Amino acid sequence: MMNNTISRRTVVAGFLVAGVGLGAVSSLALAGNPVMTAPQALKEAKEKKLVLIDVRHPMEWKETGIGVDAVPISMHQGGFLAKLDKAIGGDKNKKIAIICATGSRSAYIQKELLKRGYSNVVSVAEGMVGGPNGKGWIPRGLPIKKIDIDAIK
């Protein structure tokens, strides 16, 4: 039986495999898993062609804000899959774009969601602040919104 939760142990193990903090390009992007740029994610989110999910830590949201059309669902808090399912209306075939700071966590979450039956998951490879895969949402000057992290449950 497959475990339907993403545990902290799974996240930590994924960070190590993906090379988080080392500036490594995700093996997922190299393996052909779909990626997109921040401008593409913004365009498709505005057109309602996908749901953009920001998986960063709430303190990161507080510091930088989130993409104007993003849904904040932190991978660092409990209930990630339940919150994600609510955001996509329970439709595991709905297109989801995952964004983090630099693309490493989003690539990792993409892999985990694909393993759990979500069929249309894309990583925003450059992330919010940029990294080895691109300039990033914020440095590109794309619109952001400030959020009250205390109001997010």
Radius of gyration: 14 Å
Strand content: 5-15%
Annotated CATH topology: Oxidized Rhodanese, domain 1
**How widely separated are the two ends?**
29 Å
The CATH architecture can be given as: 3-Layer(aba) Sandwich
**Can you list the strand order of the major beta sheet?**
1-6-5-2-4
Query: What is the residue-mean pLDDT, rounded to a whole number?
Result: 84
Largest sheet: 5 strands, parallel
Fold topology:
Blueprint: H1 8-18, H2 27-30, E1 35-36, H3 38-46, E2 51-54, H4 58-64, E3 66-67, E4 70-72, H5 80-87, E5 96-99, H6 104-115, E6 121-124, E7 144-145
Parallel strand pairs: 1-6, 2-4, 2-5, 5-6
Antiparallel strand pairs: 3-7
Helix pairs in contact: 1-6
What would your notes on this structure say?
The protein has helices at 8-18, 27-30, 38-46, 58-64, 80-87, 104-115; strands spanning 35-36, 51-54, 66-67, 70-72, 96-99, 121-124, 144-145. The protein is of the alpha/beta class and 153 residues long. The strands form two sheets. Strands 1-6-5-2-4 form a five-stranded parallel beta sheet. The chain has a two-stranded antiparallel sheet with strand order 3-7. It is globular, with a radius of gyration of 14 Å. Residues 8-30 have low confidence and may be disordered.
Descriptors:
globular; 153 residues; two-stranded antiparallel ribbon; 6 helices; 14% strand; Oxidized Rhodanese, domain 1
